[in-house]
Specification:
There is one protein chain. By secondary structure, the chain is an all-alpha fold. It has a domain at 1-130. Helices cover 50% and strands 0% of the residues. It contains 9 helices and no strands. The longest helix is centred in the C-terminal third of the chain and has 19 residues, at 135-153. InterPro entries: RNaseH-like_sf. This is Dimer_Tnp_hAT domain-containing protein.
């Protein structure tokens, strides 16, 4: 059992997972922390903090932006300044993380944008239907998806041709309102399931 738990931990212990864990308001709420005596907020865990820093440096290679996100993280994790509001603190343990960031994240715009973007992209790549996918593969696909979009925007074909503005709606793949050139498709990265169809000739 111990080996299985260690293996599961190692699969999930990636910089992206450390960042996601660090930015989930639930793990700073008193209700979650008081459920077990050995629980601590992510900012106090050395491995999680190291993974978070690695991931943020990859996302924000510019030193000024990286420092700005570090300051924003300090405000969020320490319930400082605008995050010291009683509603913001009490909702950490009650509200869905994405909704919490929509409600209170405007005080830290870099982190809010990052959280909402990654929730959307990651849920597109890794959902309940695609739960068999390893965390590393999901992380790689999110990375590839984001970089393809950034690279394609610099290409002259982005505004012309068959694949014109292929990422319209960005990661908000559930909203193509007024796009007019795209159709919503049921995309899947899973292996196709073979289905048996029986035709009865009446």
């Amino acid at each position: 059992v111990h080996e299985i738990l260690v293996d599961m931990w190692n699969k999930s212990n990636t910089p992206l997972h450390c960042l996601a864990h660090s930015l989930n308001p639930k793990y700073y709420s008193l209700s979650w922390l008081n459920e077990a005596s050995n629980r601590q907020p992510p900012r106090q865990d050395n491995k999680i903090s190291k993974g978070r820093k690695i991931c943020l440096k990859r996302i924000f290679p510019n030193n000024e932006e990286f420092r700005a996100t570090q300051v924003e993280y300090a405000k969020f994790s320490g319930c400082l300044e605008s995050f010291s509001d009683s509603d913001s603190i009490s909702d950490r343990g009650k509200t869905d993380p994405k909704h919490w960031w929509l409600l209170y994240g405007s005080y830290t715009p870099l982190l809010q944008k990052l959280v909402l973007k990654n929730y959307s992209t990651y849920s597109f790549v890794h959902s309940i239907k695609r739960d068999k996918m390893t965390s590393q593969r999901a992380e790689d696909l999110v990375y590839v998806h984001t970089n393809l979009r950034l690279l394609s925007m610099r290409s002259p074909t982005y505004k012309k041709g068959v694949s014109k503005m292929w990422d319209v709606g960005g990661d908000h793949h559930d909203s193509f309102e007024d796009v007019g050139v795209h159709e919503v498709s049921n995309l899947s990265l899973d292996e196709p399931d073979m289905e048996v169809v029986i035709f009865i000739d009446e």
